[in-house]
Specification:
With 518 residues, the protein is of the alpha+beta class. The protein has four domains: 2-189, no CATH class; 212-287, no CATH class; 298-396, no CATH class; 411-517, no CATH class. It is 29% helix and 18% strand. The chain is built from 17 helices and 22 strands. The strands form seven sheets. Strands 1, 6, 7, 8, 9 and 12 form a six-stranded mixed sheet that branches. Strands 4-3-5-10 form a four-stranded antiparallel sheet. A hairpin with a 4-residue loop joins strand 13 (319-322) and strand 14 (327-332). It is globular.
Length: 518
């Protein structure tokens, strides 16, 4: 049995997920969402569980009361989900606890984070323990949710599938016999209309449907997609919208004929069409709307959000109602703004767009739709929290540094910069050189911690203070970096030129603590 390079620990789940990301080249692997209870079921708001790794890296963390981890993008990582607190006569449960496997305590049971080496592809995740009386799921394709307040105890451990498969109902899992890929399962299993998550999500919610004429308009609004994966999805959508009847088959057949090279005839098509019954697909005509926006991106992003039923969800990531004063808190060009409702409405007015209304259309302001929504984001407190460990009722004005880490740094590209610090700033003193690099590193790696130390640069003009600091400023961005051409009012007790720069240590309000002179 091998261990992932994460030390035994007792930490907040946010820190735990950060550690997992660090082990995977800094790729973004989780987001914040809001999960609420409706009629006893957990319902997510803000979930986007089908994002690719590239799409996930390009999204913001968001704000919410729950962390959503993309297990599908983490090679060999699986989550063992026990749905009850009291577990009797379960040897695998005992093994996980004896090995101090990293786990959280959930409302109903517990989540255990393990690596499984060599496990074949499987189609069923739920209730897969060898004893059907034990409610145990093995999560891979779904996102795992953890509330912000949960703590993680233990270490991620690795197990070989051959050594633990005796505890699983292999037949029920639908093992296919090939080794599982490190990424998402086949897209035909994806749910493009409903978020994946815990079993409390209602799998029987009826899919939205539209009329025959509207369906044809939606299909004709996208660019032709004849790759096998997309072609199958279109067939599923046809099947679902028309309940498997001949209308859906005819539309899919007419569409498929346009691909003359691969069209095999209506008989073969019908055979494939009938397999969509009970295949577990959750695709509706709304997928056409998503593809249309990909193919022909609207100039107005708010209109695109409206068409994909994600307007309120996305507005909540940039706009909040502040309950203390009735002000609106929002971001414009990455700048935090606080205004009265009427002023905020005027800002969003230019993003108005047309929507259908009975037999006519009307122009709507996205702000009005958001303000009137029961699901709009209300906050009671404004915070500045670079760690992003905020409560659901807090508005975090921290937006991150201007340049994000990619995990693919090349030290040779900044060798001149490093040489300047070593030879000019540190005068070839190795300890001073490392101290300066560590000082910069702490600001960038742990912006939520106070340095309590100030580097004072004292030299004649032209030796290259700006050469070093300007690059740091470019990484941090104008929001959290302040530059001044003269510090004589601060360093008046020193002789000589006092030209320099200040790096604002984010949550510092003064220069207290020890100072290191360079």
């Amino acid at each position: 049995m091998a261990e992932l390079n994460i030390e035994n620990s007792y930490m907040n789940v946010n820190e735990f997920f950060d550690t997992i990301e660090q082990e995977h080249d800094g790729n973004k692997l989780y987001r914040f969402i809001n999960v609420s209870l409706k009629e006893g079921k957990k319902v997510p708001f803000g979930e986007k569980n089908n994002l690719t790794q590239e799409e996930l890296n390009g999204t913001s963390r968001g704000n919410g009361n729950t962390l959503s981890l993309y297990v599908k993008h983490i090679q060999d990582l699986y989550v063992v989900d026990f749905d009850t607190k009291i577990i009797d006569d379960c040897k695998f449960y005992d093994i996980l606890n004896d090995d101090c496997v990293a786990h959280t305590e959930t409302t109903k049971g517990s989540h255990y984070y393990i690596k499984i080496i060599g496990i074949p592809v499987y189609t069923n995740q739920q209730k897969v323990y060898i004893d059907e009386n034990v409610e145990m799921d093995l999560i891979k394709k779904n996102n795992i949710w953890e509330t912000r307040t949960r703590m993680v105890n233990g270490t991620i451990k690795s197990y070989k599938w051959d050594s633990i498969k005796q505890y699983f109902n292999v037949e029920k899992m639908g093992i296919q016999g090939s080794i599982s890929p490190p990424v998402s399962p086949p897209s035909s299993d994806n749910n493009d209309d409903e978020p994946e998550g815990w079993a409390e999500i209602d799998d029987h919610t009826p899919l939205p449907k539209c009329s025959l004429d509207d369906f044809k308009k939606h299909l004709s609004s996208i660019k032709p997609r004849y790759d096998y994966d997309s072609w199958v999805k279109i067939g599923m959508i046809c099947y679902n919208n028309f309940d498997g009847d001949v209308n859906g088959l005819k539309i899919w057949n007419d569409y498929s004929k346009e691909d003359e090279e691969n069209y095999e005839g209506k008989k073969a098509l019908k055979k494939k069409y009938l397999t969509f019954n009970g295949n577990g697909n959750k695709l509706s005509y709304k997928q056409f709307i998503r593809w249309n926006i990909i193919d022909y991106p609207p100039k107005n992003k708010y209109e695109g959000w409206y068409k994909t039923n994600s307007l309120i969800e996305n507005m909540n990531e940039e706009c909040m109602y502040y309950t203390n004063t009735g002000d609106i808190l929002y971001f414009s060009n990455n700048n935090f703004i606080r205004n009265k409702t009427a002023i905020a409405k005027q800002y969003y007015k230019k993003f108005s767009f047309e929507i259908p209304c009975e037999e006519k259309t009307k122009i709507v302001n996205p702000f009005d739709l958001w303000l009137d929504s029961i699901d709009r984001k209300d906050v009671d407190k404004i915070v500045f929290n670079p760690k992003n460990t905020c409560k659901s009722n807090e508005f975090n004005i921290w937006k991150g540094f201007k340049i994000k880490p990619t995990g693919q740094g090349d030290e040779t590209k900044i060798q001149k910069w490093l040489n300047h610090i070593r030879h000019i700033w540190a005068c070839d003193d190795e300890d001073t050189y490392n101290y300066i690099l560590n000082w910069f590193a702490r600001i960038l790696q742990q912006p939520w911690k106070k340095n309590n130390i100030c580097l004072v640069l004292h030299s004649i003009e032209g030796v290259g203070k700006s050469f070093v600091l300007d690059m740091i400023g470019e990484i941090i961005g104008d929001e959290y970096y302040y530059s001044t051409s003269s510090l004589k009012h601060i360093l008046g007790e020193f002789n000589g030129d006092a030209e320099g720069k200040i790096l604002v240590n984010l949550n510092e309000t003064n220069w207290g603590g020890d100072k290191k002179m360079v």
